[in-house]
Structure formats: C-alpha cells, structure tokens
Design goal:
This protein folds into two domains: about 270 residues, Aldehyde Dehydrogenase, Chain A, domain 1, CATH 3.40.605; about 180 residues, Aldehyde Dehydrogenase, Chain A, domain 2, CATH 3.40.309.10. By secondary structure, it is of the alpha/beta class. Helices cover about 40% and strands about 25% of the residues.
C-alpha cells in the first residue's frame, strides 16, 4: 500500500510513488510513499492559509488535548515507531527508540505550553494608559526537515508551531518518509481540524521550491545543508518572511592533559561515531594537548576495535550503516582526501560486509591532522574524525574556535578553571564538559552560531521567539 500525502484533511495520492529502502538490508523495502507535485504543495499551502483564522483563535484546551493525545500515542508505540525509524534511517534500535521517546516528550512539553501562554501588562509612560504585550501566531509555517533525525526534528518543529496557533505545511526528507508519515497520521487522528497540518512528501527541488516560492508561507523553519539553507534565506528575504536555519557543524572536542582518559575516550567515541557520525552535533575534530596525545590515540584505537558495526536492528549493534550509497560515497571520498592531505589513517575507514547487503563503514580515525585540512574544515557527516595535536589549553581554544561553524563544542578536563573558561569562551551555541558534543535535552534551547544557525533557538520555551510575533496594545483608561 502506498502511503499518501495529507492535504486539507484528506489523504491524497501523488502522480508517482517512491520506495523507502532499509540501509541495513537494501533488499528490504520499508514502504512506498506518494510523491507530491508542485501543485500538491500549492494546494497544501492554500489549505493551511484557509485553516489559519479558526486555528489561531482555537481554545488552549483544544490544542493541549491534541498535543497530549499525540504524545501519549507516540510513547505507547515507542518500540514500534523506534523500529520503523531504525529500519529506514539505520541508527541502532536503542537510538531509534530513544529518539521516539524524545519526540513524545517534546509533544508532551508543548501540550503543557498551550496552557502557559502568557503576556505582560505594563504601565505606560503616559498617565491613564495601560499597555498589554501579547504573543500571536505568525500564520502558515513551512517546515523542512532532514533525514538524520526523522521523528525528533519534525516533532520539535511541528509541536511548537501548532501549540502557538500556526498552521503547517510539512516536507520531510525524501530519504526517510516513514517516521514523518507516522507522526502526521497520529496528529491527524488526534483531532486536528482539516488544513491545520499538511504533509507533502517528495523532492526538495519540486515540493521545497514550491514552498520557497509561495508568498502565502509566512515563516520557514529548515534543518539541513548549508547550501540549501542559503537558498531558503534568499527566498525568504524576497518574500519578507521569517526564517530559521539549522545547518552544518564541525564541532571540536578538546582533551586536556588533566582529563580523565576513560571519560575523554568514551565521550570522543560517542561524539564522533555513534549514530554513524550522522549528527550535526557530532565531533569530527578531536583537539588533544601533547601531554596526553599519544595515550589518548592508543586508547581510542583500542576502544574502536571493540565497536560492533552491524544491522541496526540486531541486538548488540553499536553503530549501524551509513544512511545510503550517496552518503557512503561522500564519507569514503573524504577518507581519501584526508590521506591525500597528509593525515595518517590510524584506524578504520574500511567498507564492511555483513549478513545482509548494506552501507557498512568502519569508523575512521585520522592522526597528524591540522586544522587547515579539508577534513578539519568541511562537514563530512559520517563516522570520520581527526586528531589535532596542540601544545596547551590556550592553543586548543584557538583551534576549537577556528571554524566557520559554531553549533556544539566540548572539553574533557578535571580543571574547574579550564572548564569555566571554556564554557565562557567557546564560540558555540552549546558547550559540553566531560560529555559528548551530541546529546541534548528536549526542554532547553538548541542552536548555534556563525554558519551553523540563523534565527532564534529551537526547543523549550525559546521556541516561542520563532513561532509567534509580539503585539503591543495601548488602552486609554
């Protein structure tokens, strides 16, 4: 059965369908999904525009009930949905279930936020005048999401959009439509009025472009590549619309001489290689001071030897396959580039064969890298990390900040002085001390600086900054 697009409350077949393939077993078709056309996207936008007046003035209990019901169903089906996620994206079953739980928690959080919508009442500078400051929904929000977190990222965009009274046109990554379709189906059955949430699956060049070209989309939130993010920005400026971008990262993880070696290695392996390195918060630059460098590299090699790379659904698998052939080719190309640049491939980087045909890659660790190399400057988005040797903390901080990106930054140290200084001076939106650079909570702000992000933060109460606009009203007493 072909899973259809949702437009104006109806499940609509596309002119063609595309297959969703399991990267752990390329013989396994996860499902078939309808591909939307530009006309379908325009119909979805029109439906969202028509539904906005009523939804934007809907009661807070109605919104709360729908989001809470969605949260409850996601959490009740976490094993089923987690397996679907792992099957279509390739992250381990434990990671798939964990991401699904996070999506449920996000909907639960924003269900609560529906009941906490607040403003301010202030005295005017003029006598006998009152001032009210309120937040109102923006209008039609376009949501474009990537393939690496196919349920969590849609959740942290859709939930606040609906919570604050916006209507939505949602385009998930074509590579992983299953999780997105499931979450939309749950919201639809939870009682959303027609047109409030519209799902248009398909090519970015067709569906995404139709969204960018439409003057009836009032805000766009995008997570994906830097190149596409720039296109979203340019198109949004032309229409004077609000836009929010989460893009690339080249996140540093600093290891100081005084670090607990076991803590540092575990955090580095998690940061660089878990989720197959396919996280915008992953750390692919391991910046290590010279006093601990050799011991750290040796311990990393030993730890990497024990990593289990296999089918994402197999018990005991720690790292699943790369998401598809194109991404695998990108990873192996960068491994070749690292060698050509003069870095030493100290461990891994080999294609692997398993019981089922899939895109399996042994995590790769380079040493003798410099921060000027392409493997240290460009986002690889795979299980490839480089060790950069530095003299001391001061040099480590300079190298850590020497990047066009600024999403997440980490440090391993037992020094309160260095940890405190790093938290203040790391040029990133998020800082981790003795923790992996990847892994964030659902109720606090997420986002970066420089080339990693544009616009207000995602998640938590900070989401209101993007999904609402402020109105100031004056009344003569």
């Amino acid at each position: 059965m072909v899973q259809k697009n949702l437009i104006d409350g109806e499940w609509i077949a596309g002119s063609e369908a595309f297959r969703n393939i399991n990267p752990s077993d390329t013989n396994d078709v996860v499902g078939e999904y309808a591909r939307a056309s530009a006309e379908d996207a325009r119909a979805a936008i029109a439906a969202a525009k028509a539904a906005f007046p009523a939804w934007s003035r809907s009661g807070i209990l109605e919104r709360h009930a729908i989001l809470r019901k969605t949260a409850d169903e996601i959490l009740a089906r976490k094993d089923e949905l987690g397996k679907l996620l792992s099957r279509e994206e390739g992250k381990t079953l434990a990671e798939g279930i964990g991401e699904t739980v996070r999506a449920g928690q996000i909907f639960d959080f924003f269900a609560g936020e529906c009941l906490r919508l607040a403003g301010e009442v202030l005295p005017s500078a003029r006598p006998n005048i009152g001032v009210e400051i309120t937040r109102e929904p923006i209008g039609v929000v376009g949501i474009i999401t990537p393939w690496n977190f196919p349920i969590a990222i849609p959740a942290w965009k859709i939930a606040p959009a609906l919570c604050y009274g916006n209507t939505v046109v949602f385009k998930p990554a074509e590579l992983v439509p299953g999780s997105s379709w499931a979450i939309v189906d749950i919201l639809h059955r939870a009682g959303l009025p027609k047109g409030v949430l519209n799902l248009v699956m398909g090519k970015g060049s067709v569906v995404g472009q139709a969204m960018l070209d439409s003057p009836d989309i009032h805000a766009i939130t995008f997570t994906g590549s830097t190149g596409t993010g720039k296109r979203v920005a340019l198109a949004s400026v032309e229409h004077n619309r609000k836009y929010q971008l989460e893009m690339g990262g080249k996140n540093p993880f600093v290891v100081l001489d005084d670090a607990d070696l076991a803590v540092a290695v575990e955090a580095a392996v998690n940061s660089a290689f878990f989720s197959t390195g396919q996280r915008c918060t992953a750390s692919s630059r391991l910046i290590v001071t010279e006093g601990i460098h050799d011991r750290f590299v040796a311990a990393m090699g030993e730890r990497m030897k024990g990593l289990v790379i296999d089918d994402a659904l197999k018990a005991g698998t720690q790292i699943g396959p790369v998401v598809d052939e194109s991404q695998l080719n990108q990873d192996t190309d960068y491994i070749a580039i690292g060698r050509q640049e003069g870095a030493k491939l100290a461990f891994g980087g080999e294609l692997l064969k398993r019981d089922t045909p899939g895109f399996y890659l042994q995590p790769a660790l380079f040493t003798e890298a410099t921060n000027a190399m392409r493997i240290s400057r460009e986002e690889i988005f795979g299980p490839v990390a480089s060790v950069i040797r530095v003299k001391d903390y001061d040099e480590a901080l300079i190298v850590a900040n020497d990047t066009p990106f600024g999403l997440s930054s980490g440090i391993a140290t037992t020094s309160l002085k260095h940890a405190t200084h790093f938290k203040r001076n790391a040029d990133a939106g998020m800082v981790m001390v003795n923790l992996p650079t990847a892994g964030v909570d659902f109720h606090v702000p997420f986002g970066g600086r420089k080339g990693s992000s544009h616009g207000s933060r995602e998640q938590g109460r900070y989401a209101a900054e993007f999904y609402t606009t402020v109105k100031t009203a004056y009344t003569l007493a």
